[in-house]
Amino acid sequence: MRRLISLCSFFVLIALLPLAPPAPAQSAASAASPDWQTLQSEAVQKLAAYIAVNTTDPPGNEILAAQWYAKIFQAERIPFEIAESAPGRGNIVARLKGSGSLPALILLNHMDVVPVSRQFWTVDPFAGLVRDGYLWGRGSLDMKSLGILQLLTFLELHRLHVPLRRDVIFVGTADEEAGGNFGAGWVVTNRPHWLTGAGFVLTEGAGSRADASGKPIYFGVGPTEKTPAWLELVATGRSGHASIPISNSAPNQLVTALEHLRQYRPPLELTPPVEAMLRTHAPYEPEPWRSRLLNIKNFLAQPDAYAELQKRPDILARLTNTISVTGLTGSNKINIIPPDARAELDCRLLPGWTIDRWVAQVRGIINNPSIKINVILNFPPATSSTDTPLFASIEKAVHALDPGAGVVQTVDAGFTDSHFFRDKGIISYGFEPFTVTREDDERVHGDNERIPVKNYQDGMHLLWSVVYDFVRAQ
Ligand SMILES: [Zn+2]
Could you tell me the distance, in angstroms and rounded to a whole number, from the CA of residue 341 to the centre of ligand 1? Predict the structure, then answer.
């Protein structure tokens, strides 16, 4: 992760097409409607082609995806701009102009995907195959599918000449899977004009669930997420020949510190976004969790609450800060006691926690002032309000298209690129307009990643409805 810290930007490519001739504006009163069959077939065909653009990160090579999008924008006569944060690390933007009377909406998607272990796949992960009702391939869930739905929503607004009360900005970025500093983080700092006038972002995260038959149960909206506090502990001590032990050697001090951390039980803490999450998820939980989550304060006051929550690590992780020891290094020779020993900790913090407070907490737990604590990655906590017209448009569209499904709030245990935008005061939601089963969801970053075609195509309709409601001139 160290390379995340050194940013470089030395190559920029700008490709601007002349603005398309003004189109006959559609009257604001008449509703525009895509030809769903055509659009939903296009969604499948484009996703298959996009999966074939290999943007495995590392190294990323997102410039290939940016150029792939660029060809589409060229064909549709939509101006766009590409910028590389480093060679091969492409980012792309395109904007539909509205009246400017309200803040713009960014449709944000990352173009990189995580690596595959080909030997465990039953199909070519970059072929974009449709089989057994699924579209298979790396990125089919995370997040090339949503990228294509965002693209087609954007294109349809243009194709149908929908008069807009806000600008709509399509942004495809590099590097999300490695922290985003060559992607969204770079764009926010180095291409601020891409985001001019923006007040809202829709991107990945939150997750939307279908039952085993594929029927939507709920759609998630993520207004915040836990923040990473990736730490390195460095213990130092006298080195020497391992035949004569040194009781306070660097490795021994480190192991003692880690044992304190292993035994530490972070206190339960109910934050407002998590309370909203648990309350809105409760109806979809079996008993006894349904009642527990509905009355979460009562449940947390029970003496056995912690023990019960340990059976549900997914809920527990939303109620505590977490620590996972992930890396250990010491001597590279078995008979040398090294002068230093290091551990990497992946800690995740609840909304509201600052890094300084957390480092002080860790320092107190390990209780050894000679151990140094370095912060490898962190960003400030930020939460977007859910009392917004964008949230209302999501609820309205879900209720219209899937009256049986709910809208739930989610606090992601991981993190996305949203924080770069929340830090700028832009309302940012994780929102995936297609539902998948729990089993489908577990293939994200795993083998045989695939998306159910019908749910994906239904997601095209839902995303269009949300965005159309939110941006069209009234
Ligand atoms: Zn992703």
Answer: 33
